[in-house]
Amino acid sequence: MVNKRNTSTYLSLGFAVVIAIYISIKVAAKQTFWLDEKLADLFASVPDMFNPFFLLLTELGDKKGIGIVALIVLGWLLLIKRNLLGAAAIALCVALGNEVNKLLKDLIARPRPDLDHLAHVDSLSFPSGHAMVGLVFYFFIAYLVLEDMKSATARRMVIILAGLLLLLIGASRIILQVHYPTDVIGGFAFGYIWVLASIYIYNFFKKKLKK
After folding, report:
1. Apex CA 174: angle with CA 171 and CA 180, to 5°?
2. Is 20 helix (H, G, I), strand (E, B) or coil?
3. How many Cβ atoms from other residues are within 10 Å of residue 140's Cβ?
4. Which of 125, 188, 191, 199 is most solvent-facing, going by the fewest CB within 10 Å?
5. Which of the 8 DSSP states describes residue 113?
């Protein structure tokens, strides 16, 4: 029998697939989104004094930021948890996820917003790499942290902190005017699909190694 947790996972995965496909088709067809205009207007009201904060946040979804955090996480997994499989899984998942993101960008070829970019960009717009790869990376870290955690309160805190961090990274890309809101939403959708598939493979090999 499928338990409630599995049911919610399947439902959320199905929702992510629908969102990813829907936005991708509309973007590829050069159609506009009402949501882009409304959310962009909302985020445009954020005072400029917060830009340095969002520039710092956006670095956590960039290659350098992820690289630094990855070194810390891999050290923790290898030296403290002795989880070689987890270290290999997260490294491979993020590396391949980044390549998939590049492929999607090239296939869909959406230009960046025609605005003054407040952060450096050198690639196409959809899906947001910070949103997609950031979600893959920090979601997988949270999953590995939760593996051995017994306290329900502590587990909730990890989930809330990871979710908040990802939302702020996504928001930073819109506030810094380098992405459309649907770039970020699409990035999160693709990232969620990718990380769930990666966690499934990780658990498959984990069970195999225990036998």
Report:
1. 125
2. helix
3. 24
4. 199
5. P
